[in-house]
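Kindly review this record before class:
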Amino acid sequence: AKLISVRLREAYFLGNLYLERGRDYQAQGRYSEAQEMYKKAIALNSNNPVPYVDLAWCYNEEGTILEAGETFKKAIAIKPKDYSIYIELGQFYQEHKRYPEAEAVLTKALEVSAGNGMVYISLGWCYGAQGKYLQAEEAFRKAIAIKPNAKIGYTEFAQCYYANKGLYPQTQEMRAKAEAHFDEVRRMTGHY
């Protein structure tokens, strides 16, 4: 049992070393070397979704889009209750303007973690990118309700008002609401 424990610790630390090397190579644009490191980390612990997510982003940066999407899905299969992986896949889809897929993934993230403000923020970004400002506004409202002291919710909410002010006949009222939200960010952080 002691030998197994030692080997597990060694695999854990070696896996983290491979991840760090992979991230360094990726930052340098050395994608094939980064992918090799991520795959070594996966070989040591195939139940850890982190190297899959890093590998997926590496594929994305390299331009291997289909492989990236499939790798994100593998990470979700490993840990289907981890909302953060759904957010990563949602951001990937948004980056490639695949908004229906992003909405579906982020909606699934809400099923996994209904009380998570970052899921609502991500969904708000997705709606906003499609010009669905009323849905974006609602998502940001929910994020603020969950975490009323989080600057990002107020900032995104205010920007949503500015982006869709043409949809509202009461533009002045929306501008005042946006300013109130920016004022709230300033109050919380001392700047903006």
